[in-house]
Amino acid sequence: MLELVIDGQAVRAEEGATILGVARDAGIYIPTLCHHDALSPSGACRLCIVEIYPQGSKLPSMTTACNFPVKEEMEVRTSSQKVLEARRLRARVLLAKGPESRAIQEIAAELGVETTPFTLETDKTCIRCSLCVRVCREAIGADALKLITRSEGAEPHVEVSPNNCIGCGSCSLLCPTGFIKMEEAGGQRIIWDTAFEMKRCSHCSSYTTSEAHWKYIEEKTGTSSEFGTVRDMCPVCRRDAVSAELLDLPEHFTTSLFTSDFD
Ligand code: SF4
Ligand code: FES
């Protein structure tokens, strides 16, 4: 275990833990935009910036809390004037890049930033946070998205590989700016300019996800979903069905859940 100080509070932390994780465990709030607990950190938005004083040093430096590992006897300041100014500057830049983004507006407002003096003519909504790329690669495993650097081409900042995209929609759901559009109508999901047929829950018949995503899960897990089984249901019906089993509800109830009579 390591010992360090965050905002004057002595804390203990596991080796390899990040400043963000340790601060959160200690009840100290640090704003984040590109961080997701289930994904590797990227350090892209720089809203989680903090001031650090390495062991025995009086010379501070600034770093992003989400991807910086804590060190023995380090001192961290999460809300000094310098830190707040740096975050406000980042918030102004992000507001210029994604003025319509609710997520950016909310974080900016938290920091007391309502407007931005910057005008950016380039991409107005993708802030290159890479959440979409990371969720596609690390959580889904499809690896269908790639961040395009300026040297590779100015716009767009994220490119899809149509052969790899399974239309799961995770990128769109995580994107904080709305850059990745997803629409669902008439049994189809349209994302990245591609229409994916959608699959219905075998119990309630609501649409769940794309057929391609469903097939992908079956291949990855080596399972197949027979019509009317728990595996063939939407998350809500599946939860209800499993709960009913676990709670040992009367047979007629579980039977009605495990079989389907919709047309
Ligand atoms: S498309 Fe959205 S999630 Fe992907 S990098 Fe841009 S802002 Fe982030
Ligand atoms: S949350 Fe740390 S850089 Fe975005």
Give a written overview of the molecule:
This protein has 263 residues and is α+β, with helices and mostly antiparallel strands. It folds into 3 domains: 1-120, Ubiquitin-like (UB roll), CATH 3.10.20.740; 124-180, Alpha-Beta Plaits (2-Layer Sandwich); 200-263, no CATH class. It is built from 8 helices and 11 strands. It has helices spanning 19-25, 81-97, 102-110, 131-140, 170-174, 211-221, 235-246, 251-258; strands at 2-6, 9-13, 49-53, 61-64, 75-77, 145-147, 158-160, 182-185, 188-191, 194-200, 207-210. The strands form 3 sheets. It has a 5-stranded mixed sheet with strand order 2-1-5-3-4, sandwiched between helices. Strands 8-9-10-11 form a 4-stranded antiparallel sheet. The chain has a two-stranded antiparallel ribbon with strand order 6-7. Strand 8 (182-185) and strand 9 (188-191) form a beta hairpin. Helix 7 runs antiparallel to helix 8 (251-258). It is globular, with a radius of gyration of 23 Å. The model is unreliable at 254-263 (pLDDT under 50). Bound molecules: iron/sulfur cluster and FE2/S2 (inorganic) cluster (FES). Iron/sulfur cluster binds at residues 126-132, 157-158, 174-177, 179-180.
Task: Give keywords.
alpha+beta, 8 helices, Ubiquitin-like (UB roll), binds FE2/S2 (inorganic) cluster, Alpha-Beta Plaits, four-stranded antiparallel beta sheet, about 260 residues, binds iron/sulfur cluster
